[in-house]
Amino acid sequence: PACRSLDCVSVFAHTVADSWQVLSLLSGVDPQDAYSRRIEALPPLVRKVRFGIPAPLEFLGDVQAEQAFAAARAALGKHAEFEFVDIPFDPFVEVARLLYEGPWVAERWLAVGDFFADQGHHMDPAVREVIAQAEGKTALDAFEAMHRLESAKRMTEATFEKIDILLVPTSPTIHTRATIATAPIPRNSDFGYYTNFVNLLGLCALALPGPFRRDALPAGLTLI
Prior knowledge:
Radius of gyration: 19 Å
Structural class: alpha/beta
Largest sheet: 5 strands, mixed
Order of helices and strands: HHEHEHHHHHEHHEE
Shape: globular
Number of helices: 10
């Protein structure tokens, strides 16, 4: 059934320990995956769960989205086993920009191969425009961005020394299809404000339903 109250948040609060145990069992390397890496198994959780909250929070002027996230945080705050830590978020935003503005867009060109050159006119225009940004990217651009990313990974490690989970809105706002059509790339980037850095930093994110907005539209939480 649809979660139309804070019940989903309460259920989540009682499953953290089980989830922690499952994650500790899943931590391991897959020899058949070239990008797999060994992750240190998580120890038993014997203290409060520390949630990092972005500072500042950004909702692009969407008051109802802001209120929905505040309600979710307040519900979690009722549980004595949780505590909250403000985390500077600007460094994560800078990493997120690398996803589509940096040289990693060339990897998308590589993935589609000759199709982009031969059949690009059949592609969604916004997707084609994003991939086309790879043209002109150089090895120098790639290495510069890689160095920036490695520095950001050290920042991330330091951040997660202070917290267990980064708690963010799944999206800072909701756009209609008509709004997206006026500026597809910037408006889609809005949706990824709190998550576009996740893959680049080697993190993992889980989106969950949160309290509904006052206009009955959905709002979600993402655990990183």
